[in-house]
Design goal:
- By secondary structure, the chain is of the alpha/beta class.
- The protein has four domains: 55 residues, N-terminal domain of TfIIb; 29 residues, no CATH class; 47 residues, no CATH class; 191 residues, Dimethylsulfoxide Reductase, domain 2.
- The chain contains 13 helices and 13 strands.
- Strands 11-10-9-12 form a four-stranded parallel β-sheet, sandwiched between helices.
- A hairpin with an 8-residue loop joins strand 4 and strand 5.
- The protein is globular.
- The chain binds iron/sulfur cluster.
- Iron/sulfur cluster binds next to loops.
């Protein structure tokens, strides 16, 4: 008899995996996954979820550790047990540690294919990072590195921590209540999962203004009433500073907030004086009129939020580009307000680690 069960996709690293309805055939084999409308995450699955059956049933699936027999590159492996694999790894780690000290070991960890809830469960208490560090730090080496170096570290850790004192995961954009959503340097329709895009599309259909700042005319830029602002790649930071220039020039800043809750506001005001709309236009390729309009839209919206990512991050000045947008949002009075860029409350966070 065919069956359905609620489960988690877990193919990629999205914590804690997208909720999915798993459809089984008459023989109890998984047929397919479909979105689970009851799950907090999983109202829409990404195309990768379609490969769930291959990951489980593929003939090429590696089901146990494999040890290389011959020279590298010959693809000559033999199966070994998990105990044997652990013995080999631990012996080698101990030998290297004894000979050269623990720092001689570095782990490169990618996002891989796993169910992230396990990783969260083993995150060291009090640490803000996980993955290989859960093994490596107690071992005595700080040398964990990985794909995070070019991707996510600027947006997720460095820029928010030094600008807002908070990690990216401890902040959110209140899209469902936004009057204006700025999609900046990212294409949420291709995200895994594209849940954010569905929320933006719903907001657009309900009348929110969508502005897309991106060299590409993405799916978000084609939503009803959406305004596309093509920008020269790598110049987003200049645009953000130019928008702050206009807010300061026209007295549109949230001065009470800036005076009481920030450091360096006086210096910042001096710094952005040089980022006139004309100069920023020459840098970004966006007309001064559009730059003026953008600044006013952000300042006057009753709740403006943003969705930004790699377009700002994957440049020579990724951290500063992202910081410039965060500062712009704070100055415009769109920080921690309904429909704006908000902080999660400590009591609403689920502590998974031990
Ligand atoms: S983003 Fe896609 S692959 Fe990742 S858990 Fe969700 S549905 Fe699965």
């Amino acid at each position: 008899m065919k069956k359905e069960r609620h489960g988690i996709c877990g193919i990629c690293f999205h914590s804690p995996g997208c909720g999915a309805v798993i459809h089984f055939d008459n023989k109890g084999k998984i047929e397919r996954l479909s979105p689970d409308p009851e799950a907090p995450m999983g109202k829409v699955l990404c195309p990768m979820a379609e490969s769930a059956t291959q990951i489980i049933y593929s003939e090429s699936r590696i089901k146990q550790p494999m040890k290389r027999k011959g020279p590298k590159g010959k693809l000559d492996f033999e199966p070994i047990t998990w105990d044997e694999a652990y013995d080999i790894i631990v012996k080698k780690l101990k030998k290297l540690k004894a000979a050269h000290g623990p720092e001689t070991i570095g782990f490169y960890a990618g996002t891989g294919t796993y169910e992230r809830a396990f990783k969260d469960a083993f995150q060291l208490k009090g640490s803000e990072i996980y993955l290989a560090s859960s093994i490596l730090f107690p071992f005595g080496s700080p040398n964990t590195f990985g794909v995070g170096a070019p991707c996510y570290t600027s947006l997720g850790v460095l820029a928010p921590k030094v600008t807002m004192g908070s990690l990216h995961i401890d902040m959110f954009s209140d899209l469902d209540n936004s009057d204006l959503i700025v999609v900046w340097g990212t294409d949420p329709s291709t995200s895994t999962p594209p849940e954010m895009f569905h929320r933006i599309a719903r907001a657009a259909n309900e009348g929110a203004q969508i502005i897309v700042i991106d060299p590409r005319r993405t799916a978000s830029a084609k939503l009803p009433g959406s305004m596309w602002v093509p920008i020269r790649p790598g110049t987003d930071g200049a645009l953000a500073l130019g928008l702050s220039h206009i807010l300061v020039r026209d007295g549109l800043t949230d001065d009470e907030f800036a005076e009481n809750w920030t450091l360096g506001y006086k210096e910042f005001k001096e710094y952005v004086k040089g980022f006139t709309p004309e100069k920023v236009s020459r840098i970004t390729g966006i007309s001064p009129e559009i730059i003026e309009k953008l600044a006013k839209e952000i300042a006057h919206a009753e709740g403006a939020s943003y969705v930004m990512y790699t377009g700002l991050e994957y440049t020579k000045s990724g951290v500063q580009n992202i910081r410039a947008v965060m500062v712009l949002w704070a100055l415009a009075g769109q920080l921690d307000v309904e429909g704006g860029r908000c902080f999660t409350r400590q009591e609403n966070r689920i502590e998974l680690n031990r």
